[in-house]
Structure to design on (776 residues):
């Protein structure tokens, strides 16, 4: 046993021996002595170290020096009757114990045999559990009452790790900052809203065109524009109000349907089947007012644009030519919207690190706008070109330029719908794909395990495996844990302090992928950054990007605050966010910082198990059997990912369903335009029939016209959606494939084709067209 003394005369490399030790070692002052000792490592691992000292002095075995109370009371050691009964918790070679050692124990127990300086003792033995094993006071000037008073005055509960938390306020704050389903469904219904607004504007525009003669007559008779405008606005207000009131009743039925699906089919989002509807009159009125406002805005804008035509042009039902300056501005915007996304795509694809999905999506949306302007320019140029010949195909293309706004509306509806449906389907996660890839969300591990009681040793130790009777070959990565709030997708509330995991960063090197990182972190292996020392005392931390963004409401570079065991503030800085992984719900830091802030943490509670896939079942069964007394719970890493990200996939399914509903509205818009176009062109069609054009030729003409619109919209949406979701196609964690996306696009085209074919054939078989020509 070796103790320390605070003596300025004793330097760091000097040692004092008792007479018994000096005789045993045959050492005199000035001789060299080699001291071997254990250093505590992770998971109770003891590393043997050594230090050389020069004998400073030899002291007698007096009460002052041979004091057994200098050794702290250690159960299993201090109360042992003789040396062979020692249970110190450290490896002891009992065979090396001699009779003279037993005699020493019987007489002096744990009295030190040597002394070193206090500074040297702190240097070689200080660890996360503390510095000193005892504090000794001189009895000559010690006053117990003064000591108790000073102790009570200077020691505070916070110094001992005691803290008071406003649990009620935290709970209320978490629930109030939970997932807002109203905003969520409003966002998910974006395309439905957009399609409805476009359709409202289209129908009103068609109504104006049908009554263009009436408008022209009113204007010619002296009615002012604002008077004519007021008539149509009042009509629109009455219709919109009637529709809004009817929509309130339908909204209740729609909400009931949505809640039923949330309680059943979309159960993964809310994790409960007792959601109930609460009708709030203010919400109903607000919805009605907003609906009327949006509808009237669409109506007024359509009316104002329509009234820009000259009175003489109203009878012609033709679009006003866009002025040259405006045309040039649109052309410049078109090239800008195409050029910027292409540059971003090239830069991102050439970057050696992770792709930015949000940047790709925004670029895809810009490209969508640019391609729609390209289509607008194509139909404009087609209408201005002089034709030397004619054919049914050319005639179909020319007919699209008769009303460019109407044609562009159809293209916009299907481009937006295809973009939403394809991009949503592309990001649906298939976390069972490539599950054993080290860059995937499993990190290449087979199992994720938790224990109720911490495991105090290294599961990779050969000796421990032999002791526990473990025969299977596997590797374990062990994590220490500090309990916190559940920050996974399974918790709808906003979290302030998720659970912390401590790990050796080298154990995760080359595993998992990262979605984001903070500026200035350029390391090729972000896990190694966890060991770095940061400015201002911040501790680097990594979490799942989903946890950072949705569970915590933060972004990489933000901070998290905790109180450590010493009552001090532990400040974590989120340096990176992983792609979907088994770490959802946790924040990960290095063991170095974990043990510094939570020194009493013993052993590991979280384990990642790596092994051969062929032996997965056997490994799982053996571990479950050996560690059952620890409260061992284990699940497949792939299944764990599926459980967590079922929420994300369900959201995507909802978005996909609502996008499909928007596509139905878009198809209805196409049907309305087609029917209206045929009715407006009945004289033209009847004349062509009278001139000898067969019905199948006219059917082909109408089919080509509308399929060109449908194809242009779907193709534009498809190209831009694939570009926007390119990271999903390149990711190992999504089931995006060209085959699946192509099938979705094919269904959209087939649906549109059926409507076009049916309506075209229906109206062409109607004999009233010829009758209308006879009347004329």
């Amino acid at each position: 046993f070796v103790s320390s003394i605070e003596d300025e005369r004793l330097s760091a490399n000097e040692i004092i021996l008792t007479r018994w030790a000096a005789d045993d070692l045959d050492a005199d002052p000035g001789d060299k002595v080699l001291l071997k000792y254990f250093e505590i490592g992770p998971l109770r691992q003891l590393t043997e170290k050594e230090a050389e000292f020069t004998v400073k002095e030899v002291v007698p075995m007096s009460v002052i020096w041979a004091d057994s109370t200098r050794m702290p009371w250690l159960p299993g050691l201090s109360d042992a009757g003789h040396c062979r009964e020692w249970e110190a918790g450290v490896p002891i070679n009992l065979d090396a114990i001699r009779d003279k050692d037993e005699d020493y124990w019987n007489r002096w127990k744990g009295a030190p045999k040597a002394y070193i300086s206090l500074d040297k003792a702190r240097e070689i033995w200080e660890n996360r559990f503390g510095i000193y094993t005892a504090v000794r006071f001189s009895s000559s000037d010690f006053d117990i009452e003064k000591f108790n008073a000073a102790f009570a005055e200077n020691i505070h509960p916070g110094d001992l790790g005691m803290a008071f938390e406003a649990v009620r306020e935290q709970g209320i704050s978490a629930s109030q900052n939970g997932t807002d389903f109203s905003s969520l469904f409003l966002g998910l219904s974006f395309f439905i809203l957009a399609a409805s607004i476009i359709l409202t504007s289209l129908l009103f525009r068609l109504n104006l065109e049908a009554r263009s003669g009436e408008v022209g007559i009113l204007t010619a008779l002296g009615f002012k524009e604002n008077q004519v405008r007021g008539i149509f606005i009042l009509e629109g207000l009455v219709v919109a109000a009637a529709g809004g009131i009817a929509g309130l009743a339908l909204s209740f039925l729609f909400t009931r349907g949505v809640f039923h699906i949330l309680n059943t089919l979309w159960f993964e989002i809310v994790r409960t089947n007792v959601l109930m509807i609460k009708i709030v009159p203010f919400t109903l009125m607000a919805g009605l007012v907003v609906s009327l406002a949006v509808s009237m805005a669409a109506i007024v804008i359509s009316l104002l644009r329509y009234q820009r035509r000259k009175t003489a042009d109203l009878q012609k039902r033709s679009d006003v030519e866009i002025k040259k300056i405006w045309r040039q501005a649109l052309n410049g915007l078109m090239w800008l919207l195409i050029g910027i996304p292409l540059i971003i795509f090239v830069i991102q694809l050439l970057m050696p690190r992770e792709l930015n999905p949000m940047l790709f999506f925004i670029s895809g949306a810009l490209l969508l706008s640019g391609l729609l302007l390209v289509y607008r320019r194509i139909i404009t140029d087609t209408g201005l070109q002089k034709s030397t010949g004619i054919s049914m195909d050319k005639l179909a293309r020319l007919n699209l330029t008769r009303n460019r706004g109407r044609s562009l509306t159809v293209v916009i509806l299907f481009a937006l719908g295809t973009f939403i449906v394809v991009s949503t389907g592309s990001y649906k996660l298939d976390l069972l794909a490539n599950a054993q890839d080290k860059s995937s969300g499993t990190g290449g591990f087979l199992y994720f395990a938790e224990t109720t009681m911490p495991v105090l040793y290294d599961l990779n130790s050969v000796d421990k495996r032999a002791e526990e009777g473990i025969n299977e070959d596997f590797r374990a990565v062990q994590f220490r844990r500090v309990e916190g709030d559940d920050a996974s997708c399974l918790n709808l509330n906003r979290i302030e302090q998720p659970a912390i995991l401590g790990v050796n960063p080298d154990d995760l090197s080359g595993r998992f992928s990262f979605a984001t990182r903070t500026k200035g972190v350029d390391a090729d292996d972000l896990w190694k950054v966890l060991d770095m020392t940061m400015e201002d005392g911040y501790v680097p931390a990594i979490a799942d990007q989903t946890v950072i963004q949705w569970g915590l409401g933060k972004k990489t570079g933000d901070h998290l605050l905790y109180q450590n065991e010493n009552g001090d503030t532990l400040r974590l800085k989120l340096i990176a966010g992983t792609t979907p992984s088994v770490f959802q719900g946790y924040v990960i830091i290095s063991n170095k910082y974990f043990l510094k802030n939570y020194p009493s943490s013993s052993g590991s509670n979280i384990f990642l198990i790596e092994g051969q896939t062929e032996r997965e079942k056997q490994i799982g069964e053996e571990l479950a059997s050996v560690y059952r007394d620890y409260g061992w719970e284990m699940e497949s890493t792939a299944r764990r990912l599926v459980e967590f990200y079922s929420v994300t996939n369900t959201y995507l399914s909802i978005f996909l369903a609502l996008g499909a509903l928007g596509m139905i509205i878009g198809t209805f818009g196409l049907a309305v335009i087609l029917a209206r176009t045929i009715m407006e062109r009945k004289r033209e069609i009847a004349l062509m029939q009278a001139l000898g054009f067969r019905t199948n030729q006219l059917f082909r003409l109408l089919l080509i016209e509308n399929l060109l619109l449908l194809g242009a919209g779907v193709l534009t949406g498809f190209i831009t959606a694939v570009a926007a979701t390119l990271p999903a196609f390149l990711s190992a964690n999504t089931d995006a494939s060209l085959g699946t996306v192509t099938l979705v696009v094919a269904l959209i085209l087939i649906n549109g084709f059926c409507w076009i074919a049916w309506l075209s054939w229906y109206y062409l078989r109607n004999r009233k067209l010829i009758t209308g020509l006879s009347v004329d």
Q: What stands out?
A: Residues 447-639 form one domain. DSSP finds 26 helices and 15 strands in the chain. The CA atoms of residues 72 and 134 lie 7 Å apart.
